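Contributing new records

If you add data, match the layout below exactly. Sequence lines come first and carry their own label; structure lines follow with theirs. Keep one chain per record. Anything else will be rejected by the validation script.
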Amino acid sequence: MAIASTSDVIILTLGVVLAAAYLFRDQLFAQNKPKAVPVSVSKASNGSGNPRDFVAKMKEGKKRIVIFYGSQTGTAEEYAIRLAKEAKQKFGLASLVCDPEEYDFENLDQVPEDCCVFFVMATYGEGEPTDNAVTLCQNLSDDSFEFSNGEHKLPGLKYVIFGLGNKTYEHYNLISRNVDSDLQKMGAIRIGERGEGDDDKSMEEDYLEWKDGMWEEFARVMGVEEGQGGDSPDFVVTEVSDHPQEKVYLGELSARALTRSKGIHDAKNPYPAPITVARELFAEGSDRNCIHVELNTENSGITYQHGDHVGVWPSNAEVEVERLLCALGLHDKKDAVINIESLDPALAKVPFPVPTTYVTVLRHYIDISAVAGRQILGVLSKFAPTPEAEALLKNLNTNKEEYNNIVTNGCLKLGEVLQLAAGNDLQGAPTPENTTAWKIPFDIIVSSIPRLQPRYYSISSSPKLYPHSIHITCVVLKYESVHNHKVPTRWVYGVGSNFLLNLKFAASGQDAPLIDSKEEPAKIFYPKYAIEGPRGAYKQETIYKVPIHVRRSTFRLPTNPKSPVIMIGPGTGVAPFRGFVQERVAMARRTIEKNGPEGLADWGSIRLYYGCRTSKDDFLYKDEWPEYAKELHGKFTLRCAFSREIFKPDGSKIYVQDLLWEDRETVADAILNGKGYVYICGDARNMSKAVEETLCKVLGEAKGGSAEVEGAAEVKLLKERSRFLTDVWS
């Protein structure tokens, strides 16, 4: 071993001293400097200093109300903005409307005493908060989360709460109820009753019934008087004569789409996906349509997983665009370029890209195809062309029963209500000659009608088999309205599905057939849509394109193929399960290639319970299932309930839940002993509930107890362990 010299030791010691001096330089050389006092960002920064400090923004903008919205599809945000507008109109109070994802909540306890916090909270999925409200809900419910007072308390905080939910789902309005409970536990004071909107019936009516009482109590608690506000517009609409045409939005959904530049494709920049396959799934001659569409996503950067949703961005039917152009007196200048500016960007953002044109707004950007809301009719009555028209709108606005009979049951859109009030004929094609023009300012239309939203469909393919193709299985919505004393029975068409049907006809080179009416066969035309898109962007020679984006889902197969899988999906509820089965087929191909068919020996069973009317007319993907079964070597079982073909001994119909009960021993064994997973997709109102009740019976019997106790406990446990998943709609 070498012995270090004296000089080596000195050099080494000097190096250690210098290193220590460097590491502790702040302490050694800063004795004379004043010590910095740590400052909480949320407490010390003003609105411009810390963009996440909503209290500072309230004080800076002299706003006495802050409104937080938990929104997944935009509906809760719309109601939040409506509340802000009403507060301004009634009391002259300014509001700060906030996406909770963009703010911190440590200083929620610092909201001034003369201010109020509104929470507009949607419940999403299985009783979960919307994506943008996850942190807010966690902060409110977590006892360890401290506000600036050093405690998990909000003494004296005044708040209002309105929840958005759907009673067909098990956890109806759970998030708003939880937020309400959490706030009260912390000493906050609720103003008025908790509002709960039910999207299964009428969110709008629930809101209208709740808000009047809430505002009355709000005025009392906050010490304000109604009548202090004004009827000021949210936007200024200006016609522009010299704007370059190439910079005018004609239906493009993003700046990148307008300039045709590359970028990430998502909800803010949908991808125009070429249609490679579009075919009818129902039997020829059926009075219903169900279409299968395949969209090419190659080189788009779009990826997906089985169980995800695809958002399709439709346009409004051309007949409704023409109808409202005529009713607003804009038909002759529909292509005039307009710019729209918000008078209060914090309260009302321009909801679509500008500059644009009148016809583009009505065709692509706002939802003129929805049933006209009761509240807007009161606003529009002051612009009526005749006293009779004014009286009718006022009556519809104030008389809930009359509104339900005529507008709701008649499925009347805004343009149709204006025609009806003016005494025009709703049956013929609308023209400036047969439609009375109303002098309604366009800013009111923009303010009152929500943005046209994408329609979501469960993806019916697997990326393992189709890495660059997204498949859609869509039943076309078409039904007859309820007859009333003002409007006869008419056909009503869903926007998204009929938009896709139009594309299917065009992509296949077909003409849309005529529809039978009660009076005469083959008399009614399917609605037409501007499927070629803005500036022809959605058509390339004979190929049509659909603007889409992908929305992620947690509706997934277990990663381990040894786990049994039970899928219940009647009708188009089978869509994601086609993707599930394809996912397993792809895995089976790889396993067999490596280990032979015996590699599947320990795989769990895959059971699909499917239902439709008959085996001949509407059996979706009838020819595919046997092929999948062959590739899965006995691991896949398909059970079909044909409700109008095979009946019970008493003559009643057989549904998927009846097949589950028939197979109860196998089903119980797969779930209880095989640790299996259960998936339901389809109708939430009836089917999903009936299936869950049957599963409670199956598991209750298997556990030697009842459906109400042991069965319900097992289903609850499955949900808690994410082994019972649903993708349902009402």
